[in-house]
Design brief:
The protein is an alpha+beta fold. The strands form three sheets. A six-stranded mixed beta barrel has the order 1-3-2-6-5-4. Strands 10-7-9-12 form a four-stranded mixed beta sheet, with no helix packed on it. The N and C termini lie far apart (82 Å). The model has no long low-confidence stretch (mean pLDDT 87).
Length: 211
């Protein structure tokens, strides 16, 4: 499980004025909750770049006054004009205590539908699961080795570790292999040709019957 190391400084003052003062100093006010106590701290915004600006799911190991807290990011607030980070909320991970997180999904195998000229279209990029911290992973996977043209893989097909519970609707499609327009046109032409051939074969039979 990939972890981002963050160093923080405890902050004792809470309120709008102290928060503004911290932001003027170029640091981000943060809070950790979910454990034995709520911890208010601040840190350099550069510490959060590899945690926020990535599609991957990562843990944060926050060290404050020599004590480390393993956490997940729950919320990040941004300035409406500059997009700078103005506040961050972290949930402390307690062994055995289940949490709900969104984990990215990826694919294993090669789709026969893609080999045949189809295009894999991903509709859901993260799956919400409920599990204990010890079961957390960076990514979940689906096997697409049997996905043919025009078919889908669904939430129920996600490979899970023991102790994981999916919170999404099980029938929701995660990805499908779409039939390209060229192949659809060929299929339509073949269907029209087959229909015309069948109609041509029926006409002489009807004429003979009338005679």
């Amino acid at each position: 499980m990939e972890t981002v190391a963050i160093n923080g400084t405890i902050r004792s003052e809470i309120g709008k004025k102290p928060l503004k003062a911290l932001r003027k100093q170029g640091v981000v006010p943060c809070v950790i909750y979910g454990g034995d106590k709520t911890i208010h701290f601040s840190s350099n915004p550069k510490s959060f770049k590899t945690l926020i600006f990535t599609p991957e799911f990562k843990l944060a190991e926050i060290t404050i006054d020599g004590t480390s807290y393993k956490c997940i990011l729950k919320d990040a607030q941004y300035h409406p004009v500059t997009d700078e980070i103005v506040h961050m909320d972290f949930l402390e991970l307690v062994p055995g205590k289940k949490v709900k997180v969104n984990i990215p999904v990826g694919f294993r195998g090669v789709s026969p539908g893609v080999k045949a000229g189809g295009k894999l279209m991903q509709k859901i990029r993260t799956v919400k699961i409920k599990t204990a911290p010890e079961n957390l992973v960076n990514k979940l996977f689906l096997d697409i080795s049997e996905v043919t043209l025009g078919t889908s893989v669904r939430i129920r097909d996600v490979e899970l570790k023991e102790g994981m519970e999916i919170m999404n609707p099980m029938a929701a499609p995660v990805a499908s292999v779409e039939v390209p327009r060229v192949l659809r046109s060929l299929e339509d032409e073949e269907a029209e040709a087959a229909a015309a051939e069948e109609a041509g074969a029926e006409a002489p039979a009807e004429a003979e019957a009338e005679a």
